[in-house]
Q: What sequence folds into this?
């Protein structure tokens, strides 16, 4: 048994609305698996069913071989959950939050206290361990929440939008910790609407839209399925009113998107476009300031597979590089 | 194996109960609905009436037991649903029984603690004497458990705040006062009222407390204990069923 998670025909109805529609997938042990989709796609509902918080309308799920409904205690002993909001007890200190969670997992006093201390140190919280969590920043609460999910030395960690709404420093810190945990052997199931995060963090990604999975593969393989969406990014020392139209008229350019002071030219033949852009600059007396070739991003894959533009339904764009995030510069 | 599992679950239930005590006992809704509400209702009822204090003390004890025990569940569960901390229990390796038992324990201790105040006041200032400790103890323990479980059952109503649960809950709690021998003794009720009062758990609380403090008992302690036990079991089972339905719906 090599699967940490197995979902079979998992389905959830809210009244007549089918929020998750007969989805099936597996997550291998030691993998970082991303569940990528816009708000309302069914990511959180799926996670809630996988963790036993919500009962599926149809289908079943196994965690480390244990059926989450029929062997729920065994399955839940092996998992840690970080929901989309930091569900910590604000009235308690970080220490009390952690030790109380240890009690829920029936850990002995010595074990839960030594584990709590180790986790507080790991997440840089030990200096404020006795202060009420209500005085903490959002990033600190998030770290407490992740620490609580790890108190039982779980084999799989479910994270629902772990970095959503956090400042850059907290995001980097949490991503680094997640990577470390994965390197130590922890399986990670991550839901996100941030394509950059999915691309950077995940070994495999499932793209979910309107309750159904539209693709599952590694981010790079998904990107390779749409090689036609290669592009070059160019910036000149000055702009002309006709520049966008001029660039669109170059041979082999399928689309031009203006992004700030840069233009992104989509093509299936970047090498030929480079020469054309060079000639265009010379003939118009322009100097090229920036010139990059870009592969298709996970965002491009998402748009291609779902037909949804990133900003339409809560898909997060981070670097401002146009249609898709996480694309590899070449 | 089964015994070890039981001990383990009991410890978790206790931990949940203690956590609730620490977080919610001094919260404004607990103070409002668990303490202020029964005491103010009692005072508005007795002031100006020529009621012997020996009659009034059992009413105050039963009322505080009723409101305090039954308020904790409808306060903690919706708040924890809103903060998603209730999900912690659902994703922890414990049964729903254990979680709700922990919540029941919190209500139970709150009810016993608050109702000890009128017992002490009666004993210290008005010469109340416990003539039947068994009846008083049975009445208080069973009632606190039954009312706490009643609160847990109502807390399964959809709602993200205590107000959304306590408002409809009060539509049940307050009318019970009228048929339970609080305002009008059961002996003075019409026949249909006496029948109705038998089905109110609060009637049996007042009867046992009254018996414990040397008062009269209309239905008899066996009926009182039996009815309260049945209600406790029914509230627990129905509460569990409702919470499972919620899990299916959410």
A:
């Amino acid at each position: 048994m090599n699967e940490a998670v197995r979902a079979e025909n998992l389905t959830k109805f809210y009244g007549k609305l089918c929020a998750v529609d007969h989805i099936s997938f597996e997550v291998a042990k030691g993998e970082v698996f991303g569940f990528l989709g816009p708000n309302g796609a069914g990511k959180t509902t799926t996670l809630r069913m996988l963790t036993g918080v919500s009962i599926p309308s149809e289908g079943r799920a196994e965690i480390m071989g244990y059926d989450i409904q029929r062997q729920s205690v065994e399955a839940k002993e092996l998992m840690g959950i970080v929901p989309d909001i930091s569900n910590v007890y604000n009235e308690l200190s970080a220490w009390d939050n952690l030790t109380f969670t240890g009690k829920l997992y029936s850990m002995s006093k010595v074990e839960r206290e030594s584990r709590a201390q180790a986790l507080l140190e790991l997440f840089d919280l030990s200096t404020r361990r006795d202060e009420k969590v209500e005085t903490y920043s959002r990033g600190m609460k998030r770290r407490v929440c992740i620490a609580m999910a790890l108190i039982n030395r779980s084999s799989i960690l479910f994270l629902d939008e772990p970095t959503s709404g956090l400042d850059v420093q907290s995001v980097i810190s949490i991503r680094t910790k997640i990577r470390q945990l994965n390197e130590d052997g922890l399986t990670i199931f991550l839901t996100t609407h941030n394509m950059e995060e999915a691309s950077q963090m995940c070994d495999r990604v499932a793209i979910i839209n309107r309750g159904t999975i539209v693709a599952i593969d590694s981010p790079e393989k998904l990107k390779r399925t749409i090689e036609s969406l290669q592009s070059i990014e160019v910036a000149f020392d000055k702009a002309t009113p006709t520049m966008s139209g001029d660039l669109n008229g170059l041979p082999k350019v399928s689309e031009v998107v203006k992004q700030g002071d840069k233009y992104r030219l989509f093509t299936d033949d970047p090498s030929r476009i480079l020469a054309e852009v060079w000639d265009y600059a010379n003939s118009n007396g322009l100097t090229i300031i920036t010139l990059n070739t870009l592969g298709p991003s996970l965002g491009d894959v998402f748009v291609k597979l779902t037909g949804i533009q990133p900003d339409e339904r809560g898909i997060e764009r981070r670097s401002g590089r146009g249609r898709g995030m996480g694309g590899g510069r070449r | 194996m089964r015994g070890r599992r039981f001990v383990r679950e009991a410890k978790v239930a206790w931990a949940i109960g203690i956590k609730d005590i620490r977080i919610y006992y001094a919260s404004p809704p607990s103070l409002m609905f668990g303490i202020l509400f029964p005491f103010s209702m009692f005072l508005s009822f007795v002031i100006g009436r020529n009621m012997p204090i020996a009659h009034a003390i059992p009413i105050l004890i039963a009322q505080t037991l009723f409101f305090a025990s039954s308020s904790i569940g409808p306060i903690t569960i919706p708040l924890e649903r809103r903060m998603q901390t209730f999900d912690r229990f659902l994703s922890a390796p414990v049964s729903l029984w254990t979680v709700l038992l922990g919540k029941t324990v919190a209500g139970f201790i709150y009810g016993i603690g608050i109702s000890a105040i009128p017992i002490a006041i009666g004993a210290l200032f008005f010469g109340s004497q416990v003539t039947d400790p068994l009846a008083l103890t049975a009445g208080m323990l069973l009632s606190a458990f039954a009312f706490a479980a009643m609160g847990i059952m109502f807390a399964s109503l959809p709602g993200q705040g205590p107000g959304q649960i306590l408002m409809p809950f009060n539509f049940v709690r307050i009318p019970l006062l009228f048929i339970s021998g609080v305002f009008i003794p059961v002996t003075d009720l019409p026949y249909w009222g006496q029948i109705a009062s038998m089905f109110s758990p609060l009637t049996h609380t007042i009867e046992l407390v009254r018996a414990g403090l040397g008062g009269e008992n209309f239905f008899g302690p066996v009926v009182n204990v039996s009815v309260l036990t049945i209600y406790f079991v029914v509230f627990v089972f129905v509460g569990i069923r409702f919470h499972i339905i919620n899990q299916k719906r959410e």
Q: What stands out?
A: The mean pLDDT of chain A is 87. Chain A has eleven helices and 14 strands.
